[in-house]
Design a protein that fits this description.
Elements (H helix, E strand, L loop, with lengths): L7 H20 L2 H26 L6 H13 L7 H18 L1 E2 L2 E2 L3 H13 L11 H15 L2 H22 L12 H7 L10 H20 L6 H11 L1 H4 L12
Antiparallel strand pairs: 1-2
Helix pairs in contact: 1-3, 1-6, 2-3, 2-4, 3-4, 3-5, 4-5, 5-10, 6-8, 7-9, 9-10
Length: 255
């Protein structure tokens, strides 16, 4: 891995490392420090091993580091056999990048795929560390949305999510301001806009954001035992090949 600060993935890595350090220091959370480091090491190790087997070359990729950080933020170490769960999630995440592909691109958000499978097979639990610190995550999210050219995804998701939750809040007689408390800002700023598993066309991006918001709302209210954000994102990922066929200007690839 080359440390090039012009790379969006390197910038994202720096942000996640800094945000993690902030949470560890302010919360005096040594367990989070251990689990975060372990998640990164496991993701990097699994991808390095896989690439060595397939390409006979040891490589540390930026995307594996980012995937590891996301696993560390989303999963909780406060559960039985957490070490095995982290290893399984990292293995599933990395494998999905190289095995479940369409036209040379992986279909599913790797971290989301790894966590959901770990939840299904090993009863893994999520914590979403720092996800409600909007004053940190929203500025970072807007920056990465700009760099990744995914503003339309954020627009579609934001309009749909706020509209749906506003109707629910009015129906339940609660204040409209409360809807902002329903949103997972780590999910929005980091996972929703992942460039390779979201559409390339403008219209496709908007529709993708809307689909993700609707699915997440349904999962949140259906009483199904799952993580609503991750499950909704994975189902929306499956629609990307179709959404890429929608008319609209194709976005610029993030560097």
């Amino acid at each position: 891995m080359q440390f090039n600060l012009k790379s969006v993935k390197v910038q994202l890595t720096v942000f996640l490392a800094g945000f993690g350090a902030y949470l560890i220091v302010t919360g005096n959370d040594r367990d989070f420090l251990l689990s975060l480091l372990l998640a990164v090491v496991l993701a990097v190790a699994f991808e390095a091993a896989l690439l060595f087997v397939t390409r006979k070359k040891v490589t540390v990729s930026e995307s594996a580091v980012v995937t590891g950080f996301i696993l560390g933020f989303v999963l909780t170490a406060d559960q039985r056999n957490w070490l095995g769960i982290y290893a399984a999630a990292a293995c599933f995440a990395i494998a999905s990048k190289h095995i479940i592909c369409f036209k040379g691109k992986h279909i599913f958000n790797p971290a989301a795929f790894g966590i959901v499978l770990a939840m299904f097979f090993f009863n893994a639990q999520t914590a979403w560390k720092g996800t409600y610190l909007w004053y940190v995550l929203l500025p970072a999210g807007f920056y990465f949305v700009y760099k990744m050219r995914k503003f339309e995804v954020l627009l579609g998701y934001g309009v749909a999510a706020l509209s749906i939750f506003a109707v629910q809040a009015l129906a339940q007689g609660s204040g409209l301001a409360n809807i902002f408390g329903y949103l997972s800002y780590f999910f929005i700023a980091i996972m929703l806009i992942e460039p390779k598993t979201t559409p390339m066309t403008q219209m496709g991006k908007v529709v993708f954001g809307i689909i993700a918001a609707i699915l997440i709302f349904i999962f949140n209210n259906a009483g199904i035992k799952c993580d609503a954000e991750l499950s909704g994102l994975l189902l929306a990922n499956m629609a990307v090949p179709v959404l890429n066929k929608l008319k609209g200007r194709q976005g610029i690839k993030a560097k």
